[in-house]
Amino acid sequence: MNEATALAHPNIALVKYWGKRAGKTNIPATPSLSITLDTLVTRTSVRESEQDQVEINGTVVSDKKIQDFLIQLRAAYSLPPLSIESFSNFPTSAGLASSASGFAGLLTAIDAAFRLEMSTSERSIWARRGSGSAARSIFGGFTSLEEENGDWCARNVLPMGAWPLKVVIAITSETAKNVGSTEGMERSKQTSPYYGAWTESTKSDHAAGLLAVSQQDFSRLASVAESSCLKMHALMLSSQPPLSYWNGATVETIAAVRELQGAGISVFFTIDAGPQVKTLCQEDATDIVVDRLASVPGVLRTLVCGLGPGAYVDQPR
Length: 317
Ligand code: 2P0
Hints:
The protein is an alpha+beta fold. The chain folds into 2 domains: about 5-160, 2-Layer Sandwich (Ribosomal Protein S5, domain 2); about 165-305, Alpha-Beta Plaits, CATH 3.30.70.890. It is built from 9 helices and 14 strands. It has helices spanning about 65-75, 100-115, 120-130, 135, 180-190, 195-215, 220-235, 250-260, 285-295, and strands at about 5-10, 10-15, 30-35, 40-50, 55, 60, 80-90, 140-150, 150-160, 165-170, 265-270, 275-280, 300-305, 310-315. A 6-stranded mixed β-sheet has the order 6-5-7-4-1-14, with helices on one face. The chain has a 4-stranded antiparallel β-sheet with strand order 2-3-8-9. Helix 2 (about 100-115) packs across helix 3 (about 120-130) and helix 6 packs antiparallel against helix 7 (about 220-235). It is globular and about 60 Å long. Bound molecules: ligand 2P0. Ligand 2P0 binds near residues 26 and 273.
């Protein structure tokens, strides 16, 4: 029986991806830079079956992104009908990058179950075809998604143990977002007057982010990451109809981070297509950041993560 299980962690972009070229293979309009997390994880099992069936967190679903992904994969590889089961230990579709860990794990499990013998770069390219950000979750630590030899592929830029930062996430809502990333990106591309400025400035942000990571320069990384995040949300707000992923607690949490920064704490924030606020801090500041964010009205709970590994196969014992 051909079957395999893979584990994959979500990643958080510090230099954001928002916008893609025309076509169905998720070619990003700009490079991006991210960190892969540890504690949060998606476990995906695949096995040969009578017909395709997808179960996410215990519920059978009809998922267009997964169907399109399998069509593309089957055009290149001979694959039987698949039973796919995926479980995440964190809220899905709420700005915590579940599609990144989902597709990175799905592709890694399919590669193992059917012995497709893909290289890590090939897995990254295929995961990207499922969801752009999934290309980055194939790798651990600090990861860059950029153009290489005419295709877009992620690579590791700093191993996970090299710079042990902590991530404190303020959960401000457990509800799924109402405009998905694919649709939101297309809306921004078609309607925002800022789109050209966004794609241009992201190229230099990516270069500055890579430099800050290579020098382990926290304050430079903080400055680039907050700027990239706020520019992306300005782009979203300037789309028509406007895309607004924040709630009141998101804004209150940013104010709390500013207060911590004012008190000399090494911390910065980033926010994706959802209302959660992700903060990065030096390891010794973790407790103070957790305490402050947990006290913000509207913050439901906090999660603490470190940097984690890329997607891998769960070897049967
Ligand atoms: C990122 N996001 O760089 C950005 C920042 C959300 C905000 O990549 O259409 O689910 O499947 O390629 O990867 C979320 O978008 O979108 C995302 P598709 P994806 O992490």
